[in-house]
Amino acid sequence: MSAETTKNNKLQSNLGAIGVKKSLKSDLNGQNDPLVMQDELRGTEEKLHRRDVLSFLCKGAIATLAVGPLAACSSQISQHGHLLTEADLAQVQVGMSKQQVNFLLGTPDTTATYTGDVFYYISSKMETKSFLPAKEIDRRVVAVYFAPQIDTVKRVAHYGLQDGKVIDFISRETPSHGQEASLINQLFRGLGAKTNVFGN
User: Fold this and answer.
1) What's the pLDDT tens digit per position in 14-34?
2) Using CB atoms within 10 A as the burial measure, which of 65, 69, 141, 170 is most buried?
3) pTM of the predicted model, to two decimals?
4) Which of 95, 145, 154 is nearest to 120 (CA)?
């Protein structure tokens, strides 16, 4: 067997291994032309390379489509307002002045006067899903009550919703009826709407 025939047989074997079924051009002697075979092999390799690239791109697109809905369903939680911890509230002691409370907790969001002044610190927890407007899912109100005339801390309350009702998490009581209870309930009105008490 000649060296040229051996080379042709190897080329045919390589073409068969990569799935080439196209018949090769023959020369005048009826034998396969090595140059033609090399050109067809090169063309086939380019086609296979393009096919692999397209397959990779298609798989990437499918993966993106599969992950897309999961990302769209995820939610982000953000908090606004006075984010006071239990440690912050523990620092506020009976007998402290308004100036001391301002120093510890900051300027209140709103104030009121009943049988003495009250400082209200409001925080809000917002949930954002996909491209939907943010929804308020929780609200807390810390109230610092001052004794009349002497303007020193009388007590501290930490209000939130439990089972749909406003409750003081410190005393475990609901606000009593009257002007104070009415204001506290107003501070929790609209919880769960697409807007919050801070207007953003």
Assistant:
1) 545 444 444 444 444 445 555
2) 141
3) 0.58
4) 145
Buried residues in 144-181 as b, exposed as e (16+ CB within 10 A): bbbeeeeebbbebbbbbeeeeebbbeeeeeebeeeebe
Residue 79 has pLDDT above 60, yes or no: yes
For strand 117-129 and strand 135-146, is the pairing parallel, antiparallel, or unpaired?
A: antiparallel
Give the count of alpha carbons within 13 A of 195, CB side only: 6
Name the more confident of 120 and 62: 120
Per the structure block, which two tokens stand in for 127? Answer: 């949930």
Helical spans, DSSP H, in 83-150: 86-91, 98-105
**Token pair listed for 19:** 């799935």
Rg, C-alpha atoms of the chain: 38
Identify the residue whose tokens are 């919880």. 191
* pLDDT score of 196: 45
Per-residue pLDDT of 124-169, as tens digits, reads: 998 888 878 888 889 999 999 999 989 999 999 999 988 888 899 8
- DSSP class of residue 96 equals -
Q: What is the rounded CA–CA span in Å between residue 156 and residue 108?
A: 13
